[in-house]
Amino acid sequence: MKFSDNFLWGGATAANQCEGAYLTDGKGLSLVDILPAKTEKRNEALFDPKQALATNYQYYPSHESIDFYHHFREDIKLFAEMGFKVYRMSISWPRIFPNGDDEQPNEQGLKFYDEVFAECRKYKIEPLVTINHFDTPLALFKKYNGWTDRRLIDLYLKYCEVLFKRYKGQVKYWLTFNEINMILHIPFLGGGLDVKSTEIPEQLKYQAAHHQLVASALATKLAHEVDDENQVGCMLVAGQTYPYTCNPKDVWAALNADREGYFFIDVQSRGYYPSYADKIFREKEVELEWAETDRRDLYENTVDFISFSYYSSRLTSADPNVMEKTAGNIFASLKNPYLKTSSWGWQTDGLGLRITMNQIYDRYQKPLFVVENGLGEKDLVTPEDEIHDQYRIDYLRENLRELGAAIEDGVECLGYTSWGCIDLVSAGSGEMSKRYGYIYVDRNDKGEGSLQRLKKDSFYWYQKVIATNGKYLLEEDD
C-alpha cells in the first residue's frame, strides 16, 4: 500500500455548514438559511420550501453555525498542524452575488475568500474549491424556481468567471457542483427547486439537472481558458449497490440503482448522455428541452477528474417483502447483516470504498479524488477537555487502508479529504451533535456553546497518518 509522494491529504467543509455570518458584509440568503433545526421538522421544510419560507422558526442552525467566518485563521492553523496538503472548501454563491443575478459582485465577499486563500498559502495548503455546494442563492429559487430555468446557466457562468479571474494562481482545483446526483433526491438543496406543485416532478428535476450539466461543461471550458493550470472535477454521491441475493432480479435492481448516480458522471466525464437515458426518460415521462449547442458543449468540455463522497455501500432487492432498512447519506438502504451501524444508522464498509473506486475507475479511466468520507457520531468531552473518539479512528483507518488497496489495484487517486474535518452543522438534519471532525467545536443542537475548538484523539492520529504518507496505517495495531 503505497501512496504517491504528491498524494493530497486533507479535510473538507462546506460554506453553508460552517461559515455562519449569514448576512454579514453584504451576503444574501442561501437555501439553507430558511431551514430550521431537526426539532422543528427540518425534513418537512427541506421538501416543502415554500412552507418553510412562510414559517418563522425559533432556530436556524446555518445563521451562525461554527462561525468559520470569524475563526478561519484559527481553524486553518489547526489544519496545518495536522499536516493538511489540501483543504476542500466551498465558496458561498450568495456571498459573492447576494441575489444571484446582481450586476456586480460583492467585493466584501470576494475579500473574505482572498484572506482564506492567503491563509492556506501561508501553510502551503492547496485549496480544492467547490463552486456550488448546495448554495444557490435563495433569491434565484424565489424568482426562477432555481435550476429549472435555463437562465441560471448564464448567472452561474458569470459567478464562475469572477471566481476564476479573481483567484487565478490561488486556486488550481475546482469542483463545479457538489453531489450533482442529489438533485433527484433533495431537489431544493440540490438545485433550488420546488417540485410539489407539478404533476411530473421528474420533468423538473431532470431538466434542472440538464441545465447544471451544461453549466458544468461551460464552466470547465471557462476555467481552462482563464488558466490552463486549472483542474476541474465533477462530484457525486457514490457507494456501490450490492444485490440482496444472487437472484438475477436483485442483481438487475442493483445495477439500475448505480446507474441512477453514474448517469450524471457519464455526461460530465464522457461528454454525452448514456445509452440508457432514453429509456429512463420514457419511463419517467421526461422530455428534455435542448439548446442547439448543448450537445457540442457537453462533448467538448469534459472534466479532468472525478471526485465523490463515500460513507457506505448500499443494498437493494427486487423483492418488496424485504423490508428492513437503515439510514445513509440521503439514500435509505436495506440493512446489510455483514456490516456495523453507526448511531445514526449509517453502515460502515471500508471494503466498499475499494470496490466503489475500482468500479468508477474501470468505468471512466480518469483520476479519482475522495473528497468526502467520515463517521458522524456523538462525542463526549471529558473534564480534562479530551475527546476519545476511537470509533472514528477505527472507521477512518479501515477506509484508508482500503483506499490504499485500491491504489495498489491500479486506481489513480489524487487525494483524500475526510468530511467535516472540523465539527459543523449537518446538512440533512441541522444537528451539531452528529460530529465528523478531528476538531471539536463547543456548540450544541440548540445553538448554545462557546465555539471553543478542541483537538480530539483522531486529530493526533490523522497527523501521524499524513506525516508518514499513510505508512502509519500499517504500523499501528487495530
UniProtKB/TrEMBL annotation:
Cleaved signal peptide residues: none
Q: In the UniProt entry, which residues are flagged as the active site?
A: 372 (nucleophile)
Where are its TM segments located?
Answer: none
Q: Which UniProt keywords apply?
A: Glycosidase, Hydrolase
* Pfam short name (any one): Glyco_hydro_1
The record's InterPro entries line, in alphabetical order, gives: GH (IPR017853), GH_1_N_CS (IPR033132), Glyco_hydro_1 (IPR001360), Glyco_hydro_1_AS (IPR018120)
List the GO molecular function terms.
beta-glucosidase activity
Question: Could you state one GO cellular component term attached to this entry?
Answer: cytosol
* Origin: domain of life: Bacteria
GO terms in the biological process aspect are: carbohydrate catabolic process
Protein family per UniProt: Belongs to the glycosyl hydrolase 1 family.
| NCBIfam families listed in its UniProt record | PRK09593.1, PRK09852.1
Protein name in the entry: Glycosyl hydrolase 1
Species this protein is from: Liquorilactobacillus mali KCTC 3596 = DSM 20444
